Amino acid sequence: MNVLALSLKFSNIENANKDIVTLIALLHDVDDYKLFGMDNAKNLTNAKKL
Hints:
There is one protein chain. The chain is mainly α. It contains five helices and no strands. It is elongated.
């Protein structure tokens, strides 16, 4: 199950705001070192662009 689907499942259980949960789930890997390298992760390169 992907992060978004799992997050929305939890949002139903916890009665959380689905818009906020969706945004967080979609952005959670924005500077993950496994995907974008350690330099980008340390400098938050992609997060700063957003």
